[in-house]
Amino acid sequence: MRHPLIGLGFFALIAFLPVFGDNYILRLGTMFAMYAVLSQSWNIIGGYAGYPSFATAAFFGLGAYTGAILQGLGLAMPLAWAAAGLMAAAFAAAMGAAILHLKGHYFAIASLVLAEVLLEITTSWTSLTGGGMGLNLPIIRMSVAAQARLFFWSMLVLAVLTFLMSWYVSAGRIGFALRCIRQNEDASSMVGINTTLYKIIAFVLSALFVGSAGALYASWVFYIEPPDVYSVMTTVRPIVMTMLGGPGTLLGPVIGSGIFLVIEEVVWRNFLSIHAAVLGILIVGLIFYLPNGVVGTAMRKLRKRKAHKVETRP
């Protein structure tokens, strides 16, 4: 019970940013919430099930274009965000049924190709997506400050919903089945776990809120183009954030998102011309010294301390 309350308390602290911060702080808060959505979603399939998915960019880009096209047709913004999530989930269900029989590197390559295929389709379908010229979204008629608060609150609510979904998965039958699959998939199947079904459920859940985040991002920036929303960095960031925080844990992706955002912002400010190289070196160093992430390392030390107390008890 303690971990979910710690996570919800952390989000509650973030919710106070509009009281003390300006638009720049709200932008950081919005970025953190979006990163938290991506990393928590990836943790479902990559952390709990142990399947190295590189499909996050595909779900994010598909959601961004679905939301942008629906808003262009006149659908209300919140409904477009919800529809984008459902579209990404439906796509994940169809693709998951096709590629989740693959394992290890084969599954990773197949999931990586999804974003490239969608990128080519989006670029070629000029009449619907604008092709390489990108797509403009309807302008929101409100002040800049009001827009900053709107997207901050919207992305934060989405991050909390993703956290609650992750909590439900972690504490329930789905999480148990996914952890069994990660330990030994063949043995899990032999004891009666429907591994194919649970892997597809995990893949769908890893896409649902990412699709909505993509649509929300499109509404936030007002203009999208294929190389932006299908960027390989959209796939890499959630993996790195989850590794920093602790894969397969409830709080790890949230904490990893905060650590990554702080490092990214500091590096951008101080090493503008070589920020990518510095950021990469720092992240590799952190993962090297904390192979189980911040949360995983802390939990391991706590377990060792408890075991030591039991052994030394008279």
UniProtKB/TrEMBL annotation:
Localization per Swiss-Prot or TrEMBL: Cell membrane
A GO CC term attached to the entry: plasma membrane
Keywords for the protein's UniProt record, in alphabetical order: Cell membrane, Membrane, Transmembrane, Transmembrane helix
GO molecular function: branched-chain amino acid transmembrane transporter activity
Pfam families per the UniProt record, alphabetical: BPD_transp_2 (PF02653)
Taxonomy of the source species: Bacteria, Pseudomonadati, Pseudomonadota, Alphaproteobacteria, Hyphomicrobiales
Membrane-spanning parts: 45-67, 79-100, 150-169, 200-223, 244-263, 275-299
Keyword ATP-binding set for record: no
Record-given protein name: Leucine/isoleucine/valine transporter permease subunit
InterPro entries in UniProt: ABC_transp_permease (IPR001851), LivM-like (IPR043428)
Signal sequence, start to end: none
PANTHER family linked: HIGH-AFFINITY BRANCHED-CHAIN AMINO ACID TRANSPORT PROTEIN BRAE (PTHR30482:SF10), HIGH-AFFINITY BRANCHED-CHAIN AMINO ACID TRANSPORT SYSTEM PERMEASE (PTHR30482)
Major place of residence: membrane
Record membrane topology: Multi-pass membrane protein
